[in-house]
Design brief:
The structure holds 2 protein chains of 2 kinds.
Chain A lengths: L2 H9 L15 H6 L4 H24 L9 H23 L1 H7 L10 H11 L4 H31 L1 E2 L2 E2 L9 H4 L1 H26 L1
Helix pairs in contact in A: 1-7, 3-4, 3-6, 3-7, 4-5, 4-6, 6-7, 7-9
Chain B lengths: L5 H50 L8 H11 E3 L3 E5 L5 E10 L4 E9 L5 E8 L13 H5 L9 E3 L9 E3 L5 H22 L3
Helix pairs in contact in B: 1-2
Classes of the chains: A mainly alpha, B alpha+beta.
């Protein structure tokens, strides 16, 4: 495996082809779980675990999967890993599990994971798919963590449940509502596309 | 195997799907069985902590066995409600109530002294309120303000409750506050008939 391929596989989903701000995928969870940093980090770990292992697993059996039922197989494998995350959280972090509620289960329908399985894992060797899955998870996670950072800070004056801003700070209530996530995501995409992606296009 | 044979088009996909389903089910079942006991214990401890919270009884944090010990010493479960030995040695009662919140059902435990008028506290067992707003009904400052008060309650703006029947509402979560207040007031009305049932 050429070194350049590995590096490119890893950096693409983090930068130019980021699933959230470039491909606008996985928006449902981006909006839903970014109200509090702690929940966001747990959610991101779940997504990272799932993208990495489902990519690697599907890639391992890619030559066996009949083309007509490949999406059923993908969904089944993805669902298996998500249920594992759900069970482990329920057993070892019941408080966070209670707060995330249905969103862990909804990782199954996160289009990023299905998208990477379809677009990458089915056409590439297992090791490379593992790296692609991990990088996609990282690319998804840092965007969510940045959004959650601003939403929790401005919306409650806290970070990770610890008071950061002066108690006189007036909470921006809209930030903890779903609408705040739309604003933050839009601002984030605007900044990133303005700064990074435009540069890349100008370079061509 | 030819690409378009009956086997490869019709039979193999079915067999493949069945096989992979079996593998996935086995893995998930295995993990479920391995953690089942822990999950059951988590749930039991969570329920028991809610009763102790409502009764205003201290228990060791992050210590499942400690919670169990305190619970077994002080609480006896009746038919849908609980008799509790309060911190000062007197008898108290904890009842379960639920009702509609802003987004979904809210389930609470209400703690009372023996006269069923003065409250010892409340605990939130489940809710679907907005994280960061209505979900703050879980926070300690909110649940503990009921201790030593008598309902029926009126909700006032956050930080202004002074009277015995006033509670601090949550800024930005008026509907949730009102819903919780209504559920509690109903619980206060119904407490004598719930506890007196048998």
């Amino acid at each position: 495996m050429a070194k350049g391929v590995v590096k490119r596989t890893f950096t693409k989903p983090i930068g130019k082809e980021n699933p959230v701000f470039a491909q606008i995928l996985g928006i449902c969870s981006t909006l839903a779980v970014t109200g509090q940093l702690e929940n966001t980090v747990v959610m991101c770990m779940g997504v990272m675990f799932t993208t990495t292992l489902s990519g690697a697993t599907l890639s391992l059996i890619r030559k066996l999967i009949p083309g007509r039922i490949r999406m059923m197989v993908e969904t089944l494998v993805i669902a298996t890993f998500v249920i594992i995350v759900d069970i482990v959280l329920r057993a070892f972090a019941p408080d966070i599990w209670r707060q995330l509620g249905p969103y862990v289960g909804l990782i199954i329908t996160n289009c990023i994971i299905m998208g990477r399985a379809e677009a990458f894992a089915l056409n590439n060797p297992s090791g490379l798919s593992l790296i692609d899955g991990l990088a996609t998870g990282v690319g998804y996670s840092y965007v969510l963590i940045i959004i959650a950072f601003f939403r929790e800070l401005l919306g409650t004056g806290e970070l990770w449940g610890i008071q950061i801003l002066n108690p006189d700070w007036t909470n921006w209530t809209i930030m903890v509502l779903p609408a705040g996530a739309f604003f933050m995501l839009a601002i984030f995409i605007w900044v990133v596309k303005g700064a990074i992606i435009k540069e890349a296009q100008d370079g061509r | 195997m030819k690409q378009d044979s009956f086997f490869s088009l019709r039979v193999f996909p079915v067999l493949f799907m069945a096989a992979i389903t079996l593998v996935c089910i086995t893995v998930v079942t295995g993990i479920h069985l391995a953690t089942e006991e822990r999950v059951r214990l988590n749930e039991l401890v969570f329920q028991r902590m809610a009763v102790l919270d409502a009764a205003g009884i201290d228990y060791p944090e992050d210590d499942a066995e400690g919670v169990q010990d305190v619970y077994e010493q002080r609480v006896s479960s009746e038919n849908g409600w609980y008799t509790v030995e309060l911190e000062d040695g007197e008898t108290g009662y904890v009842i379960s109530v639920s009702g509609a919140g802003l987004w979904g059902e809210i389930e609470l435990r209400l703690g009372f002294r023996e006269n069923l008028e003065e409250m010892t506290g409340i605990a939130v067992v489940s809710h679907n309120e907005t994280p960061g707003l209505g979900a703050r009904i879980e926070e300690q400052w909110f649940t503990e303000q009921f201790r030593g008060k008598r309902g029926p309650f009126e909700a006032v703006p956050e930080g202004t409750a002074e009277q015995e029947d006033e509670i601090d509402g949550i800024t930005g979560a008026t509907s949730t506050t009102e819903a919780v207040k209504d559920i509690i007031n109903r619980g206060i009305r119904e407490a004598p008939s719930i506890v007196g049932e048998d």
